[in-house]
Amino acid sequence: MLITEATQKQLESVVLDLSRTFTDSITRRSIPSYLPTYIQSDSPLEDSYYLGKLAGQVGPNLVTRLTTHELDQYFRNIPSLKTQKDDDTLKLLDQQVKTYLDNRSDTWVARMRKLVLTTNRHWAAEVESSQEDTPQARDYAMLEFKLAQKELMDSLSAEVDRIIQTELLHYFQRGQIRDLPAATPVFKLPRRKACKYCLDLHVEEDGSPKVSTVADISKVDNQDVKPFNWKMSTGPTHPYCYCILYTANVNNVPGPSKALAAALQSSKASLLD
Questions:
Q1: Can you tell me the mean pLDDT for 12-19?
Q2: 8 A C-beta contact, residue 108 and residue 15
Q3: Average pLDDT in the 100-119 region?
Q4: CA atoms of 236 and 165, how far apart (whole Å)
Q5: What is the mean pLDDT of the chain?
Q6: What are the residues facing 212 on neighbouring strands?
Q7: 213: left (phi over 0), alpha (psi -120 to 50) or beta
Q8: Which of 143, 177, 211 is the last residue of a domain?
Q9: Strand order in 185-189's β-sheet?
Q10: Strand partners, 187
Q11: Are residues 137 and 49 in the same domain?
C-alpha cells in the first residue's frame, strides 16, 4: 500500500477543514468589487447582511462609496438597531450555508478517498507487474499522487471562493429587502457583458429593467433549476452573478437603455445557437 490509512485520514481532515474554516477564508481580498470591502466582525457574512440593510436605506451604489469611518459609525449602532427578524433571518441563512457546506464536504471527502484508492490500486498493479518495490519507484508514485492531490485541492479552493462570493451577495441582498414592504418594486441591472440568461431575465426589449416586487423575489430559489426556468431572486441568480439589486424606495427605475437593449439582442441570438 502506498498511501496508508492514517495518511488518508489526515488528507480527509484537510478537506473537511475547508468547510469548518469557511468564514475564516473570507478576507477583504475575496469580497467582490461590487460589494463594500469591509469586514467589521468575525462573521463577514453577517456584516454583509447589515451592509445590505444599509443599502436598503441609501442604495447599493452609495454603500460601496462610504468611508471606513462612516461604516464604523454605522456598525457601532447595529446592536441598538437589531430586531428579532434580523436574528431569525441570519439563523435561517446560516443554517442553509451550513447544510450546503456539509453536503459539499461529503463530496470533497469522497473525491479524496477515490484519489487515494485509485493511487493504491495503480501502485499495487505496478508492483505486481514489475515485481519491484524500490524507494525510487515509491518516490515517483508519491510524486504523481501529490500532483493529483494538488490539482484536487486547487479545484476545492476554487469552489470555496465561488461559495464565498455567492453567499456574500446572498446575505447582502437579503439584508436589502429585510425591512421593505412586500409590495416595494425591485429590479436588477446586469452589466452589458452579463451572461445571456441574466440579460434575458432582467432586461426588457427597450433596455429598461424588468420590475418585480420584494414579495415575489423572496419566494424564488434558483438552485438546481435549469437556466431557461430562472426567475428574479434575492441573491445571485447563479455563481459569480454580478447583477446588482435595486429597490425603488431608494433608486428610481431607469428608462430605456440602447446599450442594454443591444446587449439583450446579442444575447438572444446566442440563446438560439
A1: 76
A2: yes
A3: 89
A4: 9
A5: 87
A6: 186
A7: beta
A8: 177
A9: 211-213, 185-189, 244-247
A10: 211, 246
A11: yes
